Amino acid sequence: MTTPFDEQKPKRPGMIARIRSSFLTGLVVIAPVAMTIWLIWSVIGWIDSVVLPLVPGDFSPGEYTGINLRGYGLIIFLIFTVIVGWVAKGILGRSLISFAEGLVVRMPVVRSVYSGVKQIAETVFAQTDRSFEKACLIQYPRKGIWAIGFISTEAKGEVAKEAGGDGTILSVFVPTTPNPTSGFLLFFPKEDVIELDMTVEEAAKLVISAGLVYPNMVEPTAETSVEDKVD
Q1: E strands present in the chain
Q2: Strand pairing of 183-189 and 169-175?
């Protein structure tokens, strides 16, 4: 006869529960790998679809083997890009680029698109030493609501003059979830920006995971002060 005071043995999970647990564990392991492979495969396929139609048929391996070799267009693109970069570094290449840009700046609509794309490309690819400085907290879109942001630099020129007055204005990029490549460029007084100890990469993981992955997350039981241990 058992009483309420008898020690109850933990109930073992059933077969269905164990299978479900194993399935979820396997899904956690497989999903990141599968998504990475799918993304790389899709990017290579997209580059092939753009490059291969521009390649003469005599240079396409499909004409001889009858097999569409995925990645052939990517190899051609990489070789072509290296050759263009090598030529652009020479005197002849710089002269040709200057001549072509001179023609572009005379076209009213094209020059605006070209200058914008060129500036973005130079910022992203050429100036590799330029990146976000710190992760931060800002109150956005209104006071009392906090958002993760990335400090890019101090505002300069007309923006700093008109918005800053005598104070320092920081340029802050506020990313969206789950795609941190899109977001908003906002300007805040320096005193309204709280810099975080977490790195930019850790803050990006926090944004992408929609708040599920926190850097250096400590269990509540571990947050015990020295005084508590002494007591």
Answers
A1: 134-139, 146-154, 169-175, 183-189, 194-195
A2: antiparallel
Q: How far apart are CA 29 and CA 23, in angstroms?
A: 10
Can you read off the two tokens belonging to residue 20? 């479900």
- pTM comes to 0.50
76 alpha-carbon distance from chain centroid: 26
pLDDT in tens, 27-57: 888 998 999 999 999 999 899 888 888 877 7
Bond into 141 cis (ω within 30):
yes
Q: What are the tokens at 165?
A: 């007055």
> Which segments of 41-196 are extended strands (E)?
134-139, 146-154, 169-175, 183-189, 194-195
Q: d(Cα 123, Cα 218) in Å, to the nearest integer?
A: 37
78 Cβ partners below 8 Å, 6+ apart?
none
